[in-house]
Amino acid sequence: NAILGFVQEYRAEKALQALKRLTAPTAQVVREGRPHEVPARELVPGDIIIIDTGDLVPADARLLSCRNLLINQAVLTGESAPVSKSADAVMEPGAPVADRDNMVYSSTVAVRGRGRALVTATGMNSELGRIAQLVQQVGGEETPLQQELSRVGRVLVYVALAIVAVIFALGVFRGDSVVQMFLVAVSLAVAAIPEGLPAVVTIALALGVRRMAARNALVRRLRSVETLGAASVICSDKTGTLTENEMTVRQIVTPERALQVSGEGYTPRGRFLLDDAPISAEEAVDIQALLQAGVLASTADLVHEAGARDGTWTIRGDPTEGALLVAAAKGDYRESDAEAEFAFVEEIPFDSERKRMSIVYSRRQPAQRPAFALGNSPGERIAFVKGAPESVLRLCSRVQRQGQVQPLTDGERREFLDVNSYLGEQALRVLAMAYRPLPPDTPMTEEAVEQDLIFLGLQAMIDPPRAEAVAAVREAQEAGVTVVMITGDQHNTAIAIARELGIFGSEDVSLTGSQLEEISDERLAEIVPRVKVYARVSPEYKLRIVRAWRAQGRIVAMTGD
Q: Quick check: 2 pLDDT over 60?
């Protein structure tokens, strides 16, 4: 019994140690005036670290300088979209982690740009370490199996003692020796206790651990297998757990039509649907122009990892820009096509105040299938602009329709802004695309390039639910398990995803972190069965929610970041 339990848990710990070694991060640190690469565990407060695109941030740090730095903070805050950082920002004391634009945090990822930062906290003193401490403070308790075995044990003892007492009394009453009946009673009492039960339970749990391992689930403690099966509430994170953590274009809107885009994640498989009927993007000039502009106004890369399982597709760079590349690939336009047709000239990077970016190209060769009404001569320079619709539309004086450039009226501009508002209410992130052929002597400045633009349309995206998550939620609910979403993402985004997953219905209630802060623990325990979505919630509030469910006598499973 002891050997079996030890071997199973030892294997699990060895596997965890191997995983930790695989994920051990390194850091670029400035020492003696020069950059050095060191293990992240050697960093100390006061070190200056260098952060580049694709880096895992090794510690909590205050930005000293940065350029176009976008950080994916989903692991810490649950936000599906990367956050723009600024070294010049000054925050109010006590500002939430998600709003601290001048800070970067351990285990978050730089998706674009670069910067330098002063380390302020490492290890258990970091924000991630603080969360680890909160989890460690949760005291160990008996599992449902242990509680049930204790109850069964007590019942067995009481029943055995009662039966033994009756037999002892009957034997003595019949005239047998008291000593002999005492020995008989003791023998019966020992025989009645199932000493093989612990071994049987351990073997059963060990088999459960092996079955979980066959499904790529690592279980550290044998008793956790049974506890998992006894859960009556599942509290799940959203980003990367219920969703793909891969931004996906769901709708595109051109001046001529609005289309749905099928397919999930970064795999470039999907169709363009007009009133649920497929439409060929290759044959529609307005769709091709919008998709091509999305590729040309992006700096990310769509990468096919052929050696990975199922030939996985990943994005290097901003996930939002990656979604534009995937949408274009579904319309049979890829980065290689853009590189063959255009040569890079200049980039005017994204700025959080301007809320847009521009990239200027010169045309290498005439277009095989001209998508743009203007700028199709070899050597001609064209600026492609993408950004927030209100920012881009303000600079547009023309619009491209059916391959023709026409004046853009104020009424049409308002219509596009109304469409943007409608898509935003559905928790979609919307980007506008525009372009402009540049006169030969145009200086490469923001004021000179970003004016008199030709509007092409809108692309709306979201981090979609995992297909398997929809089925898993339904299966859990059919088994009588309550599913609750707890996320640090925006409220409307959380509600939209929860509705798609079947977690949130018309009778259910949602709460934000600020509302949760104003509710007492007693009141939360009363209303917790009706609340199915929590948004903009910090990690310590997750523990409050779990405690409220446990006050209802429920067994809670927590999954996600």
A: yes
* Dist. CA 195–CA 208, nearest whole Å: 22
Q: Which of these, 73, 77, 89, 85, lies nearest to 115 by C-alpha position?
A: 85
What are the angstrom distances between the C-alpha of 455 and each of 133, 251, 445? 51, 17, 20
| Structural contact between residues 126 and 105, judged by C-beta atoms closer than 8 angstroms | yes
DSSP string, 281-336: GGG-HHHHHHHHHHHHT---EEEEETTSTT-EEEEES-HHHHHHHHHHHHTT--HH
Specify the DSSP class assigned to residue 352.
Answer: T
Residues 128-170 pLDDT 10s: 888 888 777 766 677 788 888 888 888 988 998 899 999 999 9
Contact (Cβ atoms closer than 8 angstroms) between residue 246 and residue 320: no
Which positions are catalytic?
A: 237
**Residue 97 amino acid letter:** V
- Name the amino acid, one letter, at 549: W
Give pairs for 504-507: CB < 8 Å, separation 24+. Answer: 504/532, 504/533, 505/532
pLDDT per residue as tens digits for the range 203-231: 888 888 888 888 888 888 888 888 888 89
Beta carbons of 264 and 513 less than 8 angstroms apart: no
Cα-based angle 273, 260, 533 (whole degrees, multiple of 5): 145
423 by Cβ neighbours in 10 Å (0-12 / 13-18 / 19+) ranks as buried
Q: Tokens 């529609």 identify what position?
A: 284
Residue 384 has a pLDDT of 96
What are residue 363's DSSP bridge partners? 342
8 A C-beta contact, residue 358 and residue 297: yes
Round to whole Å and give the CA distance between 386 and 297.
6
545: Cβ contacts below 8 Å, ≥ 6 apart: 235, 484, 486, 516, 524, 528, 534, 537
The DSSP annotation for 534-546 comes to EES--HHHHHHHH
Q: Whose structure tokens read 């969703």?
A: 243
Work out the number of other CB atoms within 10 angstroms of the CB of residue 527. 12
115, 87 contact by CB (below 8 A): yes
Comparison of pLDDT for 61 and 368, the residue scoring more: 61
Q: 282 pLDDT exceeds 70?
A: no
Place of tokens 């190209």: 361
- Which residue type is seen at 438? L
A 10 A CB-CB count for 422 gives: 13
| Helix (H), strand (E), coil (C) string for 354-395 | CCEEEEEEEECCCCCCCCCCCCCCCCCEEEEEEECHHHHHCC
Share of residues in the chain with pLDDT > 70 (%): 97
pLDDT score of 177 more than 80: yes
Q: For residues 36-67, b (16+ Cβ closer than 10 Å) or e, as one string?
A: eeeebeebeeebebbbebebbbbbbbebeebe
208 C-beta neighbours (distance < 10 Å), count: 18
CB contact set of 196 (below 8 Å; sequence gap of 6+): none
* The pair of three-digit structure tokens given for residue 130, joined into one six-digit string: 């603080």
Residue in the structure block whose two tokens are 């809107």: 253
